[in-house]
Amino acid sequence: TSFSAMAGSTRASVTLTGRGDARRLPASCVTANLFDVWGLRLAQGRAFSVNADAPGAPGEVVLSHHFWDRELNRDSAAVGRTLMLDGRPATIVGVAAPEIEFGSMADIDVWVPLALAAKLSYPVLLKAAHGSGYRPPAATGLFTDVPKSNAFAGWIEQLSPEEMTDGWRPN
Question: If you average pLDDT over residues 100-120, what whole number do you get?
Fold first, then answer.
């Protein structure tokens, strides 16, 4: 048996802010190719860009049809707008077709690329260890592949001494 492509997903939740009271949304964190590999149709827009799940990629989000209906009143101009998910911007690139919202996908409000999901978890890990008000010190340039200008650099650097990093290369 051989595979021409593989895709993956995992369940999570994200906090939506900037649209009334902050609230948790059920999410699916997916590889960038999931919609193509699974043959999932979109009602509007497009699926994730090829590199959406690569480190440093800008945030993208695909909305469920029911979220688009409930929260955005089926606004045809929603694609291209930005949502704040866990305090980070994510551009709406697509809206899922309603017929894919069945079974375990029926309660998903948003799909986010795994790279964005991983970034969103950094603050959660540190806040769990140090308290909800925790903020890391300013980035120092500890990692060659995480520039100090990266919004997550301070969080990543703080994870390193606590032995919570994997895959970053210290200078």
Answer: 73
